[in-house]
Amino acid sequence: MPNSESEAGAETAAQLRGRRVLLVIAGGIAAYKCLDLIRRLRENGAHVRCILTRAGAEFVTPLSVETLARQAVYTDTLALTEDSEIAHIRLGQEADIVVVAPATADIMAKMAHGIADDLATSTLIAADKPTLLAPAMNTRMWRHPATERNRARLEADGVSFVGPNDGPLAEGESGPGRMAEVPEIVAAIVDVLGARAGPLAGLRVLVTSGPTYEPIDPVRFLGNRSSGKQGHAIAAACAEAGADVLLVSGPTQQPAPAGVETVRVETAEEMLAACERGLPVDIAICAAAVSDWRAAAPQDQKIKKPRRGEGQDRGAPTLDLAENPDILATLSARGPKRPRLVIGFAAETEDVEANAAAKLAAKGCDWILANRVAEGAVFGDDENVIHLLTRPGEGAAPAVERWPRMSKAEVAVRLVQCIAEVLSSDAETA
Ligand SMILES: Cc1cc2nc3c(=O)[nH]c(=O)nc-3n(C[C@H](O)[C@H](O)[C@H](O)COP(=O)(O)O)c2cc1C
Fold first, then answer.
1. Domain check: are 176 and 285 in the same one?
2. Is residue 64, in this structure, part of any structural domain at all?
3. E-assigned strands of 104-210?
4. What is the C-alpha to C-alpha distance for residues 53 and 31, in angstroms, rounded to an integer?
5. Known active-site residue 384
6. For ligand 1, is residue 57 a contact (CB within 6 Å)?
7. Which of 130, 162, 193 is the last residue of a domain?
8. Domain end (from 137, 158, 193)
9. Which residues does 425 contact at the CB level (< 8 Å), separation at least 6?
10. For residue 120, which atom of ligand 1 is closest to its CA?
11. How far is the C-alpha of 188 from the C-alpha of 275, rounded, in Å?
12. Same structural domain, 188 and 211
């Protein structure tokens, strides 16, 4: 139990750091308090996305909500997210908790009856995440048998409630119906999310995943066959082990893992910038297959094939390449922001261990997970054969551990176990 206010605050921050809250703001007078709720959640390190119901937008403006949340606010059933997935499915999938505050009599009634006639209610019915309601309404609305039935129905469905409190109401009356205060809602969110536990609890982990796409012109790019399966599995396993995980992902078909803050990028330069913005971290795991090169001068217009008889003698265009930043080497460089453990991947087509040992030395990272990618193996597969190279000490030859063939999810779990072991032995010797 925390025994001071500052300890309680630190505990709240530890529980909320990196957690993704989807806040539905419905149309009640208490909607203004949500601006403070967003601020408090963000101060504690949570990521807040907001949906405003049509009535909610009569009480607080999308601009205020967006400014405080630092995220686009969702107001429209037809809204699509950046990569064109239907928002009402994606928003729930990408949240750790859905909070409705204020929860109006209307939205409670719709939720209790499975009505999905706008973005907020469609998201609520599609979300399989813990849901917390902070009702706010006039006492007579709250005491109405219909509202009481709806509340009981929702509780039976597993929905949690905070408040309402007894006190002065906007209409000048007093009684039950006043929305719980912001600190109470924050505490309820922490309760519903549950304490983080696991061998990586309290650690911040950066994971990169997937390929990078380097534009040649608006329709063509340099890329590779990385599917992101291994990197995403590692991010999921770290989150499962209690870590606060930032996943920086190139273009992949993989869904964002639950409980993981996911930043999507395209190019190596964008990936490095997103990683650097995420520092400091305790552990960095670079599983992305970052393109070594990019087109030196990407064209604004599509490069045209010359028409018959028109400059055909010019032949095919040549592509000048520029070297991309080395993300693994950058993160491994000594300095105050260097993570305690930097782990890279090596995709090799031959001499796996010798090449991986050379990469370990050249990049300055602590471990390399090497795998063979000849004849299309590994990229896109569900399984992997890993050679783990670690550095026993300055100047010593790397130690090699050969893992049997296993699924990428199993590789991720085993990697987490190795990390947990090395960190706990570091802690013992410290
Ligand atoms: C000025 C005003 C204040 C309102 N305050 C509340 C409120 O505190 N709680 C509530 O349940 N409904 C309140 N309502 C009614 C809701 O705005 C109305 O039921 C609306 O349809 C709710 O839509 P929503 O649930 O999609 O946000 C209020 C209406 C007005 C005009």
1. no
2. yes
3. 131-135, 160-161, 165-168, 174-178, 204-209
4. 11
5. no
6. no
7. 193
8. 193
9. none
10. 26
11. 32
12. no
- Is residue 58 situated within a structural domain? yes
What is the tally of structural domains in the chain? 2
pTM for the model stands at 0.59
We report the CATH number of the domain holding residue 353 as 3.40.50.10300
In a domain, 309, yes or no: no
Per-residue pLDDT of the chain (430 residues; tens, 9 = 90+): 444 556 567 677 777 888 899 999 999 999 999 999 999 999 998 999 999 999 999 999 999 999 999 988 998 655 544 444 577 777 888 888 999 999 999 999 999 999 999 999 999 999 878 899 999 999 999 999 999 999 999 998 888 999 999 988 777 778 899 999 999 999 999 888 875 668 898 789 999 999 999 999 999 999 998 999 999 999 999 988 988 889 999 999 988 887 778 889 999 999 999 999 999 999 999 999 999 999 999 999 999 887 776 665 667 889 999 999 999 999 999 888 899 999 999 988 889 999 999 999 999 999 999 988 765 555 667 888 899 999 877 777 899 999 999 999 999 999 999 999 998 776 566 5
**3 state SS of 417:** helix
28 lines ligand 1 (CB under 6 A): yes
Q: Do 236 and 95 fall within a single domain?
A: no
234 touches 412 (CB < 8 A):
yes
Is the Cβ atom of 106 under 6 angstroms away from ligand 1? yes
